[in-house]
Every structure is written in C-alpha cells, then in structure tokens.
Amino acid sequence: MTDSAQPETLPTPATVTLGTGQAALTTTNIGYGAMSIAGAYGSIAEDAALQLLEHVSESGVNFIDTANIYGDGVSEEIVGKFLTGRRDEFVLATKVGIEKGGGVGQRRARGDSAYIKEQIDHSLRRLGTDYVDLYYLHRVDPEVPIEESAGALGELVEAGKVRGIGLSEATGEEIRRAHAVHPLSAVQSEWSIFARDVEVHVLPAVAELGIGFVPYSPVGRGLLTDHFSPDDLTEGDGRHNFPWFQGENLTHNQQLAQKVRQIAAEVSVPTAALALSWLFEKAAGFGATISPIPGTRYAKHWNELQAGLGADGSGGTVSAAALEQLEGLAAEVAGERSFNSGWVSGGREGLVPRP
C-alpha cells in the first residue's frame, strides 16, 4: 500500500439497527472483533489491547464483539476492564456454545439449556456487567435441537441478562427455526470476497426475516490486507489450523490475494478498505443490514479497515468494474474456510465439502 492510500481522516460510522421489533439493537455499522486481543494471531500485551480499544472507540465505533472461548476468557476480561465506568456507551456482544477441549479442532459445540444458562454468568463476571446487548450461540450443537438453544437464550432475555440474541454459523433453516422460538437480533457468519457460501441460504433468510447480519473475518483472517505475509504466521498463530493457510493452499491463496491488492491499488484505497466496501455493496443487493466485525492488533490497520465505510460512513462504494473483477475469486480459493466444514453453515447446507 502506498502512503497516499493511508486514510488521514476516518469516516464516522453510520448507525444501523440489527433486528426488528423487540429484537432491535441499534449500533454502529462496523464493530471491533475482539478475538485478536486474546492472542489468536499473535501476542499482544494487555496495555496495548486497552489502547487499541480506546483508539477504536475514539474512531466513533461503539460495537464490541467477544466470546467466552477467546483466550479462555481473556478477551472478555480485557473488554471488561476497558468498559469500566462507561458500559452503557457500548453495544456489547459475546458468545456461548464452544466447550473448551484440546485446542482448535478438538473442541465441541454445546448448546443445551443448562450450559447456556451457566455460562452467561461467567461471561458477565469477566465483563464486569450485569447484561450483554447481544448473546450468540457460537456454534450449533448437532446433538441439541436449535429450538432448545434458542429457547434458553430467550429466557436470558426475560431474566434481564441479555437484550438480544443471535446465532453464529447457522444454516438458513436453523435461523428460521430459532427465530420462530424467539426473535433473533443478528446472525454472525464468515463472509468476505474469499468466503461466500452464506449468500445461498443464510443472507436471503436474514433479509426476509429482518435479522441483522454480522460478518466476521471480512478480510479473510488478514489475507485481504496489504500487510499479510506467510512469514507472519508464528508457531502459536491459530491460522495454522485453517486449510487456507496450509502448505500449497497458502501459496496459491497469497497469489490470489495479490489480485485484490492490485485492484485496491488501482483505486488508491487500502486492500482492507476495499474488502469492507465490497461487503456493503453486496449486502445492499440482498437487502440485508450488516455490521462487520474485523479484528486487528494495530491501530494503523484499524484505520485502513474503517476507511472501507466510504466518505459518508455508510458503507463505501465499489465501482462496477472492481466488483466484476472480484466476483469470481472465491471460486479460486484453495482449501475450505474451516478446519471442520460441519462447524460452518455452508458445510451443513452441502455447499462446501464435509469431512
């Protein structure tokens, strides 16, 4: 990326409403994904993490997304310290539904009512609050009907511990079944230039039902930025577990990402900004309201992401020519987006190979 592509003044995020009726949550149209501050992609000191959250806040963003499994609670604890004395200024999301195991690939999805109700209290304690604005089922438990999980989440709303509920990586059918039990505020799934299976069933479902959509990994876990290098993948980097970042797949996908960087350079924007702008353009076509939640450990990288909101902060504009060039890239990506396709919506919908 050239210096001229580095934004000098960040656009102010627009306000969006995720969900409708009693499930409506109003927040900024970009949020911070706080997995990065728990060491998923490399270490970060707590003081640096708090400074980064302050930078995001000063940039006009009030939406923070974390989960109980990120660093086994570390992310929630850091977010909780950041929120001390100003909890009501932020829309706070966290998640339940992945039970700790032997590391990535050995964990299990768990969505029974007892577990959900147990874990919310642990999350509230770590976050230093008595409620969360949005509580997601992190993964759908194959052994528990989605109606049970949604019912348990709904009971937490009635108890005042949660204001809105959501699902992560749910299929279109699972979304409809859960929404019939208790209205969903949002669905969170991976969506990017490189990962597009949600466009077949998930996005049409949320658009029809008026549910917000929260794309995670909108820059392909760093691939769709100007900064990624295979040399950055240290021994403890969680990306080693994902097929995109393994062996020949990584070499191929890095070359494919270079095409995106070239397109971004042609229009003088950071690659991360182009990736975010692309999401807003595609979401408009589906009639979906979105709030992407990119994550990073660096303020400079955050600035590049937020530049994707465009001059007026509403979501940027990607030229028709750029959209056309980006359209077919997902089909060329080597490897699946998850280490276990059964854990993501596209795997259970038959859109990506199952293990």
TrEMBL record:
What molecular functions are annotated in GO for this chain? oxidoreductase activity
What Gene Ontology terms describe where this protein resides (cellular component)?
cytoplasm
What keywords are annotated for this sequence in UniProt?
Answer: Oxidoreductase
- Keyword set includes Acetylation: no
Q: Which InterPro entries match?
A: Aldo-Keto_reductase, NAD(P)_OxRdtase_dom_sf, NADP_OxRdtase_dom
Looking at the record, the residues that make up the NADP-dependent oxidoreductase domain are 29-304
Pfam families linked to this entry? Aldo_ket_red
Q: Mind telling me which PANTHER family this protein's record contains? A: AFLATOXIN B1 ALDEHYDE REDUCTASE, ALDO-KETO REDUCTASE YAKC [NADP(+)]
Q: What is this protein called?
A: Aldo/keto reductase
Name its species. Answer: Nesterenkonia sedimenti
